[in-house]
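Researcher: Go.
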Amino acid sequence: MLLGFFLGYQSLFLVDIEGFPLGHVEAPLNVYEKLLMERLLDCILGEDIEMELLAADSQFESKQVFNSLNLK
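Model: Structure:
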């Protein structure tokens, strides 16, 4: 029988079209995932990587994510 507190976390990964990992961020489960997306893109795009296509789960289709990508 397991008792006690278990800390959960989430990971968000960004990969290229061939599946090569470009970067990731980790945070506790209670952090809003869309906030992680902006932090991940800032980290990756700061390395002079040009992005032509971004595919993500449908939950990332939001004004907050579009604003971080400078899309309206």
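Model: The longest helix spans residues 33-45.
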